[in-house]
Amino acid sequence: MPRGNMPRQPSRSGRQDAIRSAKPVVSKQTPAQPNARRRSAEPGNAPKSKAANKSAPTKKSDASSTYDSLNPERIRQIISGLDRMYPGATCALTHRSAWELLVATILSAQCTDVRVNMVTPILFEKYPTPQDFAALQPEQLEPDIRSTGFFRNKSKSVVGAARKIVSDFGGKVPETMDELLTLPGVARKTANVVLGTWFKKNEGVVVDTHVTRISRRLELSHHEDAQKIEQDLMQIIPRERWTDFSHEVIWHGRKLCVARNPQCADCAIEKLCHAADKTWSTVGIHKEAKP
Questions:
Q1: DSSP string, 54-74
Q2: Which residues does the annotation mark as catalytic?
Q3: Which of 29, 65, 98, 146 has the most CB atoms around its CB within 10 Å?
């Protein structure tokens, strides 16, 4: 045999052939994978399971979360819409003087303006001046105002106010809020009516049942107390508009935005109203818009 490398003899056990013939195991790990493992081990890089993705709540954009019912532009649009619907709106109570307006407003409590306007012409013809009322006993006035309801209390208020005006103010209705509030039967609502309508002084906002209901429907206030509603409205309505705003909202409550069957399809501010009891709506409903 020629000299050189001798061929290796096979092992009797066959182990060597098995090792030589076995295919090398190739790792599935690519060179980039070790880095990927290190990145996944870093905080915040843990892989998310499908179950975690399913259980995680989906954040939805909620338009109502950015809604501001007291946005100045919205307030301006409400006032503009009321102006268009009720141009030149004023007090519906018939009167020729501050005294007649004061008496009519006292009688209008828990009574319609239509009924009061049926009573006051006869009443003022019978008793033309505050002095004439001051000379009466409340019982004498009761038959003349019985149809307005609560006539006993109203008789005491009217006669008491007349006597106070004659004795303390020279027979003339006072022109300030503080003085008006000293008269029997006069609260802020009555004083605001007289000051705003007759004396053209915006000292407050008239809050009657219509203003209360519609202010809550329009989300201008969430209170039920008249004084708190007035304070809310005084914060958002320009002062020069307080009296006009009151008259327009009152007319709106009588003509269109009636309590039982609001005429929403004919309302110029329908798009600004989100009340739940609307009869027709092009906008969403808000739980806070309570009539």
A1: HHSPPP---GGGG--TT-HHH
A2: 189, 208
A3: 98
User: 117 with 252, same domain?
Assistant: no
DSSP state, residue 237: S
Q: Do 257 and 128 reside in the same domain of the chain? A: no
pLDDT at 148: 97
What is the C-alpha separation between 236 and 220, in angstroms, rounded?
Answer: 8
Question: What CATH number does the domain containing 144 carry?
Answer: 1.10.340.30
Residue range(s) defining the domain that contains residue 233: 72-89+205-272
| Residues whose CB falls within 8 Å of the CB of residue 157, separated by 6 or more in sequence, listed in order | 106, 184, 185, 186
Sign of CA dihedral 144, 148, 151, 154: negative
User: Can you give the CATH number for the domain in which 214 is found?
Assistant: 1.10.1670.10
- Count the Cβ atoms, other than its own, within 10 Å of residue 49: 9
* Helix, strand or coil, per DSSP, at residue 122: helix
- Number of domains composing the chain: 2
Give tens-digit pLDDT for 43-87: 445 444 444 443 333 333 344 568 899 999 999 999 999 999 999
Own/partner long-range contacts of 111-117 (Cβ < 8 Å, ≥24 apart): 111/148, 111/149, 111/150, 115/147, 115/148, 116/148, 117/92, 117/93
Task: Tell me the pTM.
Answer: 0.76
pLDDT at 120 over 50: yes
Q: Is the pLDDT of residue 125 over 90?
A: yes
